Amino acid sequence: MSSKEIFLYERKQNKNDDFTIWMAFPGVYSFSMSSLGYLWMFKTLDMLEGVNIERICSDTEKTAFSIKDVNLFGFSFSFDMDFLTIFSMLEKYNIPLKSKDRTKEPLIFAGGPVVTANPEPYKEFFDFFIIGDGEDVNLTAVDICRKYPDKEEALQALSEVEGIYVPKYSNKVKKLTKKLSECIYTPILSEDAFFKNTFILEMSRGCANRCGFCIASYLNLPLRFVSYDDLIKTIDFGLSYTDKIALLGAQISAHPHFHDICAYIYNKIKSGQKIEMSVSSLRVDAITPDVVKTLAATGQKNVTLAIEAGSERLRKVINKNLSEEQIFNAVKIAKENGLKGFKFYGMLGLPTETQEDLNAMIELGKKVKKENKGFDISFGVSSFVPKPNTPFQWVGRENTKILEDKANFLKKELHKIGISSNISSIKWDYWQAVLSRGDETLNDFVLEVYKMGGKLGAFKSAAKKLNIDTDFFAIKNYSFDQKLPWDFIEITPGKDFLIKEYNRLLENFT
């Protein structure tokens, strides 16, 4: 915790309570202070009577409470590789990694997108998981753990709560979906945050576009919006503390009042108020003169545009219905209204991808650059990873050699035309796919990977040592009647809908 923190809510001080929670972020302090979900969870628990709570990060040196006084230890689990940091944090406080080896230690739990999608590769390490939107169920979990000091009684009671998965007792669990009845915002500002003194607010949750590969879309359906009045009130509240704001949401520009919100901020700037604003990536149809003028006026120079694929054919396959004409129009508007550049986000190895699709991405870059001299164009590219609860969960990746050849080709050809590109590591993406579609047999595997140091070579060595066919999880195509590790999670839309979508998107190409 930093002395430079500003709390935007009134804390209950000097509680001297006998129930203590550690809320852990598997990363350094500066990153934790830019994680909206993590900070909001902390705030909701910090407001409880009768509870002490402390934030713990991977670089925390001194703690206010000793581990022996902690009753509940919760982890935010947002990225597949977070397990490595989580294990090291548990060991730092002398906590056995597997729940079966813990007796007097606190109950250990996790929430976040990774474990909501598929907790099975990690089920032996946590006593329970929060599945879905955790704002409300977190409070219920704390109430139960306070009511039942006996671990087994607490776990049995937790297993009966919707949205809580207790591996020891639960057979099925329903994913929680919360109505956005309030605007979630940064409750603590810090100079030492990765986004220094930035007030982040959530405008929307979910995405109606439903790209076939996209877990952020499917895991957060339906698309929900915070009301206009709430947003304006929250923006004003944030601006009373800082001049830096960030609008968050997978599809913020789909908000029915997005243009009104931009106009509201633009008018404040025109009347003399200093505001720096950033937004998460925008849809192409949101690149309108009024939106771009607002972004430019708030100091934003570049915007990320997720085009996913270079050809219209492949964009249709993944359900990204976006024409080349729309892309060029967006660039033109951005350039004419004050932005300095675009970062195009694309993917390699999408189902049905051919060499023609890769060529189309290069041609697109070439054409955009030629027609927009002085406008900065760059590409960020990752490789396709099959994710649970998406239509493409049944589709395996191409092998690493093929994907690395594609990545090298793309990087080289873009470089030739003067476009910089940042392509994710194909080898790391492979292991991400293994974990994404993994089952309970991977619990010893992730433990072995951690013990071997967690570098790239450790994954390969651990798989060899434990005789695990990792290609089964990463590369194999699955059949519809195959039982999937995450089938026990009840989620909307369900499997039947995903199969229909798979068939609709891929019917002409497989």
Describe the structure.
The chain is an alpha/beta fold and 510 residues long. It folds into three domains: 14-174, 3-Layer(aba) Sandwich (Rossmann fold); 180-300, Transcription Regulator spoIIAA (2-Layer Sandwich); 301-510, Transcription Regulator spoIIAA. The chain has 19 helices and 19 strands. It has a six-stranded mixed sheet. Strands 15-16-17-18 form a four-stranded parallel sheet, with helices on one face. Strand 16, helix 13 and strand 17 form a beta-alpha-beta unit. Helix 3 crosses helix 16. The mean pLDDT is 91.
List keywords for this structure.
Transcription Regulator spoIIAA; 6-stranded mixed beta sheet; Rossmann fold; 510 residues; 4-stranded parallel beta sheet
Mean pLDDT: 91
The largest sheet, given as strand count, sense and whether it forms a barrel, is:
6 strands, mixed
Shape: globular
Oligomer: single chain
Low-confidence stretches: none
The share of residues in extended strands comes to 15-25%
End-to-end Cα distance, whole Å, is: 53 Å
The computed structural class is alpha/beta
- CATH architecture assignment name of the largest domain: 2-Layer Sandwich
Helix content range: 25-40%
Number of spatially distinct domains: 3
- Widest sheet: strand order? 3-2-4-5-6-7
Task: Please work out how many helical segments DSSP would assign.
Answer: 19
The CATH topology annotation of the largest domain reads as Transcription Regulator spoIIAA
Radius of gyration, CA atoms, in whole angstroms: 23 Å
Number of strands: 19
Which CATH top level class of the largest domain fits? Alpha Beta
